């Protein structure tokens, strides 16, 4: 058990080190040697868990989409809360920053589109919103999901450039105030809160064990 726990911790250390390097330098300019230096592990230890730099990028991108869900009885409010939770993560979590940078750079891993998981998650919540009577029935959910993801990406990029994302929550709230009248039923708008209903800091991320489970589910590595 002690050996397994050490392996879990080593894997986590490597992922966090890789995230910090990818966030700082992007995928192409990130050197394996720098990841090893920040992680403080041997090359053999890293390759035991991750056979390539691409597999490290995959783990990071898997994790950033696996941990943003927010439980709420309202699918549309869940979507709003999810964006605020991720906004908080972008300011505080190198894995979120790295995953976003990798996606913006168009890093394709295992043949998947870098934004595919975000599109799928957002589409699912919009479909659930239609079923709950919150989202306009005539809405093309996939098209709208891609628009949402593009809008959030643009908002966070501008916030990063202007003030290091210091006002990202406020910008996301403004985004939702403009978007909701175009997608939500009038009866639902009054009870939706574009500023979010949950404290993003309280939902800032999974425990280490939860994050590790998400990574292992994506990669199958021990």
Give structural notes.
The protein is mainly α and 222 residues long. The chain folds into 2 domains: 61 residues, Homeodomain-like (Arc Repressor Mutant, subunit A), CATH 1.10.10; 137 residues, Orthogonal Bundle (Tetracycline Repressor, domain 2). 69% of the residues lie in helices and 0% in strands. Helix 1 crosses helix 2 and helix 5 packs antiparallel against helix 7. The chain is elongated.
What are the salient characteristics of this protein?
elongated, mainly alpha, single chain, 0% strand, Arc Repressor Mutant, subunit A, 69% helix, Tetracycline Repressor, domain 2, 2 domains, 222 residues
Mean pLDDT comes to 86
CATH class placement of the largest domain: Mainly Alpha
- Bin the strand percentage: under 5%
Q: How many extended strands?
A: 0
Which helices and strands, and how do they pair?
Layout: H1 2-25, H2 32-39, H3 43-49, H4 53-66, H5 75-92, H6 94-104, H7 116-131, H8 141-163, H9 168-183, H10 186-189, H11 208-219
Short description, anyone?
By secondary structure, the chain is an all-alpha fold. The protein has helices at 2-25, 32-39, 43-49, 53-66, 75-92, 94-104, 116-131, 141-163, 168-183, 186-189, 208-219. Helix 1 crosses helix 2 (32-39) and helix 5 crosses helix 6.
């Amino acid at each position: 058990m002690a050996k397994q726990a050490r392996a879990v911790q080593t894997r986590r250390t490597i992922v966090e080190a890789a995230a910090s390097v990818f966030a700082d330098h992007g995928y192409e300019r990130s050197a394996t040697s720098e990841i090893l230096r920040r992680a403080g592990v041997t090359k053999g230890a890293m390759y035991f868990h991750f056979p390539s730099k691409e597999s490290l990028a995959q783990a990071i991108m898997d994790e950033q989409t696996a941990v943003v869900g927010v439980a709420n009885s309202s699918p549309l409010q869940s979507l709003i809360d999810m964006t605020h939770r991720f906004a908080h993560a972008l300011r505080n979590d190198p894995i979120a920053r790295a995953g976003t940078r990798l996606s913006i750079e168009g890093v394709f891993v295992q043949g998947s589109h870098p934004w595919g998981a975000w599109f799928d998650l957002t589409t699912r919540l919009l479909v659930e919103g239609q079923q709950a009577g919150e989202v306009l029935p005539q809405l093309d959910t996939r098209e709208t999901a891609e628009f949402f993801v593009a809008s959030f990406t643009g908002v966070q990029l501008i916030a990063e450039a202007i003030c290091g994302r210091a006002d990202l929550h406020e910008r996301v709230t403004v985004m939702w105030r403009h978007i909701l009248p175009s997608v939500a039923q009038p009866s639902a708008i009054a009870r939706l809160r574009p500023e979010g209903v949950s404290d993003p800091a309280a939902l800032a991320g999974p425990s280490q064990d939860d994050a590790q489970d998400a990574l292992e589910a994506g990669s199958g590595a021990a």
